[in-house]
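Lab notebook, page 48
Experiment: co-folding of the full assembly
Goal: obtain a model of how the components sit together before planning crosslinking
Operator: M.T.
Materials (sequences as entered):
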Amino acid sequence: MTPEQLIARIRTIRGTSPGNLMARHFDEDYFRSLDDQSRQRLRRIIASGIENPDSQMGAYAMNPEDYDRFAPMLDPMIRDFHGIPAQTAIAQKHDWDTGGMSCDLAAIDSRLKDVSMRVRVARNVSTFPLPGAMSKEQRVDLERLAAQAFTRLREDPAFGGHYLSITPGSPDEIDATEYDRRVKSHQMFKDMSGDPYLNVAGISADWPYGRGMYVSRDEDFLVWVGEEDHLRIMAMQHGGNLNALFERLRNGLERLRDLLPAFATSPCYGNVTSCPTNLGAGVRASLHMRLPALTENGRDLTGLKHQAKALGLAIRGAGGEHSDAGEGGLVDISPSARLGVTEMEIMRRLYDGAAALWAMETA
Ligand code: DAR
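Observation: model returned without errors.
Model output:
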């Protein structure tokens, strides 16, 4: 496709898919001003949004420096998604200190003392390209580096566990039965090669090479290797104490940070991620809650999504992105903001949002 054919294709997408932020913010004169090499790099970054017009963001960074090199294209998209005005300086801050703030769901209602909660961060090692631009050898080298770090991590009694690889021939390789069991138990990520967005972006290339998961002995601390980012580090808990959940993640993240090369960061966007929707704190904190009254017993999430949006929350089905509500109106609730908010602000928003939705449910 010639540059002018590409421009015409994106013009069409802008008309047919107004929610596609890549098409919305694509600047034709900026694109024409680039030299051939830069045009090719930018085409790879926005390829997913071109081949998938129904995309929300429509772009994945290929290298950490893409966010600076292609800021005229990417920054307006990032601001639009994260709700940050053009004139506001972006300077991501990090704060894991609760300052004595208690966020225990049981304090809202004793019926909320045992909910499924998960918090995860995305991190990318600065010495490799981002997943969309990695070679098969680089994916396996990154996994090997992570596995070496896990060998040290497992010496810590608080994080002892083992690494499960799905790379053929890996010394830690598990068989298909074990892999399927771990996916069904919502621990391991599913086969990415069927995801149309990740396929076009190159993020699912060379599947399953360079992929795996570290799991702690008590299975409440996991690290995905080679999913949408180099590492997805997560803590899980059946309970209600968000403070303990975030503390578990913070401690595990800090142990891992000391065992690996520096993570990729940006002076304004904070932790660099493949998808611009995950920039900033890079935290996705969520909890599952049964809201039968607000979801017509799981049949209709439309009203709940609208109410949740007003609270700065996103609603998903219990099965993850693009899934329906579970039995009894079981839904996944998560704060939408990730850029321009700290880790503690995200924890507070989840707690306050859950309290507000529970009050509506039980009114
Ligand atoms: N499908 C892509 C990504 C949206 C955000 N979800 C992620 N990163 N898992 C899109 O641009 O719509």
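Interpretation: The domain at 3-82 is CATH 1.10.135.10 (Transferase Creatine Kinase; Chain A, domain 1).
Next step: discuss with group before ordering constructs.
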